[in-house]
Amino acid sequence: MEPVRFTFLNGSDIERLELTDIEILDAVEAGLRAQGLGETVIEPRVHLMPDAAFNGHFNVLRGYIAPLALAGVKIVGDYVDNYRLGLPSEMALLNLFDPRTGMPVAVLDATAITEMRTGALTALGARHLARPDAKVLGHIGARATSYWNVRLLDRIFDLAEIRVHSRRPESREAFAERLQEELGKPVVVTEDWKTCVEGADIVVEASRLERPEPLLKTEWIAPGALVVPYGTNSAVELSLTDVMDKIVVDDWGQAHAGPFGALRAHVDSGRLDETILHGELGEIVAGRKPGRESAEETNLFWHRGLSLSDIALGGAMLKKAQERGLGQKLRFS
User: Fold this and answer.
1) CATH number assigned to the domain covering 130-304
2) Taking the model in full, what pTM does it have?
3) DSSP 3-state assignment of 250?
């Protein structure tokens, strides 16, 4: 019997792939389309909390995409105090398998994958649910995924005004400096939440709160705006969903499962259920449900993060790595 081997892509390999913004968006959109067409299996994420004293937990995401012939499991640590150690708050591994045999196909450093696919989900949600002429972004949070939110939103909308805020001044200043250098346009650093989000066309809430706290006020949201909250702990008021014309999620199965998520309290209190939900983003991407239908709509897109997006982007990376001769072949058996 021939030895079984799989491909290992480390962080350096993935950096050398030099995926373009369009490649990232196209890969994640393909995963969403497959989901919307019923060509996937996705299980709600589960969590491992080793010790409350560590102030962190692991997320385990699982899924299968039939058109890609790939199944996958990603394990990502979410540790909010890692910045004190000079480490990313989220570090991950993605395992890809042949769904027909169960044999391992690849293991990838999924830290960058997590960051990129999260930004792509935010941007693709905005493509379908924000006004096409949206030009002002108010972004709360400066974690690693935040960079890709702004970068990919700017790719789609060519933003005229970018406002950012985060809890630590040094964090938001460094974030704005990186964005200005990468995007070649000014970025406004705000001292508070209200100045950042009030009147913005697109509002992204990606804060890193230690406990739920309603810091984002519903009254600040302009009619016709899109709001994208995805922090682990809720920063929005319960009244936020009351002003929305359409509420869309990435996956309803995991939206109402598990203890975490920006709209967790809305689900638990009954303010958000399937009767209120407009649909999943994949259904819109696949053309089964409409996205934004008028300039007057005020919409909300809540995403928890999809294993399908990890698998789709990981599959695109694996294909490009094979073309470029990158990665290591490791023996499994």
Assistant:
1) 3.40.50.720
2) 0.94
3) coil
